[in-house]
Amino acid sequence: MGSLVLPKKTKKIALLGATGSIGRSTLDLVARFPERYQVVAMGGGRKIEELLALARRFQPQLLSVQEESGAEELRRALRESGLRIPVMAGQAGAVAVATHTQAEIVVAAMVGAVGLEPTHAALQAGKDVALANKESMVMAGRLLNQLALSTGASILPLDSEHSAIWQALNGEAKKGVAKLILTASGGPFRDFSAERMQEVTPAQAMCHPRWQMGPKITIDSATMMNKALEIIEARWLFDIVPEKIEVLVHPQSIVHSLVEYVDGSVLAQLGLPDMRLPIGYALAYPERLALELPRLDLAVLGRLDFFPADPERFPALSLVRQALAAGDSGAIAFNAANEVAVELFRQGEIGFLEIAETVADVLQTVVREEFSSLTEILDFDAQIRQSLL
């Protein structure tokens, strides 16, 4: 008589940033594997109609939106649809989603510093966090690592670059690592002169040549601030000194990152630019999902190009070293100044090159400080932002 094969337990997910690019890719995987995954709580921003459609389709037990006015609109629409799903708003709502009692893993895909508090709350509650919100690790990497260690929670990388490093490190001893190499597409302006970059418009900056992302991340990619933030994130995710983290421009976005070992071996993770690959790896780890997606064909691709990252064209790569040298306060100020500057650029109040100039000016004023609590971090973040308004 054959042994009884029990079905796999359905993994329950809390999703923050449901209406963004990472959220949509996550939900695509949930829809493809309904026997493996269930969304029990879901948070979005201001896209109420889209969130309503997602609520109808996935029927979570809790919803959260950015503003109370949107929450009321969504409650009314849900009632008209015959759905009784509680709706919360603001940071309290995001935290409630992140700490939902049934959630086993939290996909943290909010953009910006607003993602820190719910990420912290999820780890404090002992939830594993699949982290796409790089700002959380940038602002509070040391604190979040300590918290995860104390509660037994895991922080799983969702960025394609950090997922690639995670995969290339799998099974290897840390002492054998010589350096981590983050790849960058170079964005749409990698060949622009300084004069041309002065004329870049927000519309131009939001046209990434390889990835479909939200406006803030797309602009960060164009300035290379995104890669600078990823250096800080990698420093904490993989517990490695910043001096061992490098950036290489790779326009095709096929090699997502590499690890060089002390014997000279280099391990890389390759794949088509599709966020469902790193998301699926995090959700299924230590297994892999059998994904029916377009496959990488190296013979058709024909070539892979790599170039050194130019810190003169992209000063973010130099500024991040300055930020890291200033400890917690430097990293927090770096992120806060960039978020404010990106928004000013989107509104047409400053030019493209002034984003990096704004960050540089702020870093000149920062005194090195280390913070031991979430309150201290959020207070310092608010202080930097207020100084720019």
Could you write a compact summary of the structure shown?
Helices cover 47% and strands 15% of the residues. It has 17 helices and twelve strands.
Structural overview:
This protein is α/β, with parallel strands linked by helices and 389 residues long. Helices cover 47% and strands 15% of the residues. The chain has 17 helices and 12 strands. The protein has a 7-stranded parallel β-sheet with strand order 4-3-2-1-5-6-7, with helices on both faces. A 5-stranded mixed β-sheet has the order 11-10-8-9-12, with helices on one face. Helix 6 packs antiparallel against helix 15. It is globular and about 55 Å long. Residues 1-6 have low confidence and may be disordered.
CATH superfamily annotation of the largest domain: RNA polymerase sigma factor, region 2, helix turn helix motif
Q: Structural class from helices and strands?
A: alpha/beta
CATH architecture of the largest domain: Orthogonal Bundle
* Total domain units: 2
The average pLDDT is 93
Measured by DSSP, the beta-strand proportion falls in: 5-15%
Report how far apart the termini are.
73 Å
Radius of gyration over C-alpha positions, nearest whole angstrom = 21 Å
Query: If helices are DSSP runs of H or I spanning 4 or more residues, what is the number of helices?
Result: 17
Number of strands: 12
Q: Topology as H/E string?
A: EHEHEHEHEHEHEHEHHHHEEEHHEHHHH
- Residue stretches low in confidence (pLDDT < 50, at least 5 long) are 1-6
Strand order of the largest sheet: 4-3-2-1-5-6-7
Helical content band? 40-55%
Largest sheet: 7 strands, parallel
What is the general shape?
globular
